[in-house]
Amino acid sequence: MNAARELHNQVMWNRLISIVEEQALTLVRTAFSTSVREAGDLSAGVFDTEGRMIAQAVTGTPGHVNTMAAAVGHFIDDIGPERIYPGDVYITNDPWKGTGHLHDITVTTPVFRDPSDDTSLVGFFASTAHVVDVGGRGYGPEAREVYEEGVRIPILKWVERGELNDDLVTMVRWNVRESDQVIGDIHGLAACNETGRRRLLSMLEEFELDDLDDLAAFVFDRTRSATMAALAHVPKGTYTNTMVVDGYDLPLTLAVTLTVTDDGMHADFTGTSPISRYGINVPLGYAEAYFTYAMLVALAPELPNNFASLAPFTVSAPKGVILNAEHPDPVSVRHVIGHFVTDLTLGAIAHALPEVVPAEGAGALWNFQASARQASPDNPKPPVELLMFNSGGSGARPSLDGLTATAFPSGVRTMSAEATEQVGPIIIWRKEIREDSGGAGRQRGGMGQILEVGPTDGYQFEFSAMFDRVTNPARGRNGGEDGEPGRVYLSDGTPFPTKGVETVPAGSRLIMELPGGGGFGDPAERDPAAEENDRRQGYIR
C-alpha cells in the first residue's frame, strides 16, 4: 500500500471513530434511564458485513463492548442474510447472544449503501444499554432460573422495513415495571444507530466509497500487527492464579491458567467453583470480555478495540463452573463475579510482568437497586424502581496510587446524588471518601466511599443486595497490604445481608462502606511527601 492510500485509510478510520462517538452521544442524550445518561452504562460500535467490529466509541464498559463484538454475528445468523432489509432494526437481551444478562438490551441496525437496493449492505451499527427493569424478580440474585429474571427477548425485528413492530413494543411494555423508561431507552438505542447510519453514508459519499471492505481490512491488519507485537513482550509459557470471593451463601474460588504462545493467549478457567443456584453465574462470553480487557489494558492500553485486537485472546471452561453459565442458569447479577475476571487474569500475567500489573481492586460495582414501595396501606404511594451505581477503590499501580471510588474494570461513572434523588423517593444523606480504606504500600490502594441512603417519608425500600469484597478484601501486590473489606449495615447498627432481597424500613437508613483497593510494594518505601499529602487530604489518619 502506497503512502497516500495508507494516509487516506487512516483519515477514514479516524472518521469512523468520530461517527461511533456521535452514535454513543446520541444515546446518552436520548436515554431515559440514569444508568445510561448519568453513568454511561452503554456501548456503541460499527461492524462490517460479517459482523466483525471495526470501531467502537470510547465509552461504556467492557462487559458491553467486548460481548457486543460477538453479538452482531448472532443477529446475522438468527435473522438470516436473506431477511436483512433496509429500514430494519433488530433487538435482543438474550444473555448468551447479547451481553450476559436480561437487563442489557442490544439493538442492531443494518446499513445499505443504496436504501432502495437490498443487495447493497455495507455494515451494521450496534449499541447496548442497561435498562432499569425487565420485570421478573427484578435486578437481584434471588432467581433460580433465567425464566424468573424477567422478559427475555430473542433476536427479533423491532422495526422491519421502516415499520415499528407494535406487537413487540406492547409485549415489552406489559412485562416491565418502568415501561416508559424501558421503551424510551430502546427507542434511544435505535436512534443512536440511526445517527451512525446517516453519518456513515455521508462518509461513503464524501470519499466515493462503495463499501467498507478495504477500510475494514486495513484496520484489522494494522490492529492485529500491533496486538501481536505487544504480545511478543510476554514470555511464552503458562501462568496461573486463583482468587477467593465472597459468593452468595458460600465462598467461591476463581481459577485461571493462561497459556501464551506465538499465536496469542488462552485463558482456561478449570478449577473454578461450580455453578451457583443463585443469579451470580457468568456466561462464558462475559468472562471472555473481562479477560480480553485485562490483557489489552496490561499489554497495550493505547490499542484500539476491535475484532483484530480481540481475536488473539481466547477462553475455555469446563461445563458446570460459575464462569461458564449455560441456559437456563440464573445470571441476573453476573457482574458480581464477572468483574473479578480482570483481577484474576491480571494476577496470572503478573508472574511475567511484575512491574506492570496493578494490585487487586474492589472489582464488582456496588449497585444500589431498590424498589420503593409505600410504607403503610393508609398512605398510598406509587411504586418506583431505583438504580444507582457505586464503586470502591481500584488497586495501586506500580508507579501510581490506586484510583479512589472508581469503577475498574467496569468503567461506568458513579451517579451523582442529585441525579439519583431526582428520579425517585430517595435521600442520599452521605457520600464521602472512606478514610484508611486503601491498602498501604509504596503506592497506596484507591479509597472506597461511604454512602448513607434512605427512603423519603411514606416509603420503604425492597432492596436487592449484591455486594462482594466484604469477607475477602482486595489483595495487595509485591508486598503491598490488602484493602479494607466492605461493610453494610442499617443506621441503628444492625448488620445488613450482602446478597439477596431485604427491606430498608421507613425511617431507617442503609449505610454502605465500600471496599478499598490493595497496595503495591513495601509500605516502608512510600514517599513521605505522598503520605503527608494523604493525611492532609483526609485519606489516612
Describe this structure in words.
The protein has helices at 3-30, 34-37, 62-79, 166-173, 179-206, 213-231, 284-299, 307-310, 335-338, 340-349, 417-423, 528-537, and strands at 42-47, 53-56, 89-92, 104-112, 121-130, 156-160, 163-164, 237-245, 252-261, 264-268, 313-316, 368-374, 384-388, 426-433, 449-455, 459-466, 487-490, 499-504, 510-513. The protein is α+β, with helices and mostly antiparallel strands. The chain has three domains: 3-211, no CATH class; 236-356, no CATH class; 358-541, no CATH class. Strands 2-1-5-4-3-6-7 form a seven-stranded antiparallel beta sheet, with helices on both faces. Strands 8-9-10-11 form a four-stranded mixed beta sheet, covered by helices on one side. A hairpin with a 2-residue loop joins β9 (252-261) and β10. α3 packs across α7 and α7 (284-299) packs across α10. The longest helix has 28 residues, at 3-30. It is globular, with a radius of gyration of 23 Å. The mean pLDDT is 93.
Strand order of the largest sheet: 2-1-5-4-3-6-7
Number of helices: 12
Strand content: 15-25%
Number of strands: 19
Helix content: 25-40%
How many strands, what sense, and barrel or not for the largest sheet? Answer: 7 strands, antiparallel
Ranges where pLDDT stays below 50 over 5 or more residues in a row are: none
Overall mean pLDDT: 93
Determine the N-to-C terminus distance: 61 Å
Counted up, domains total 3
Structural class: alpha+beta
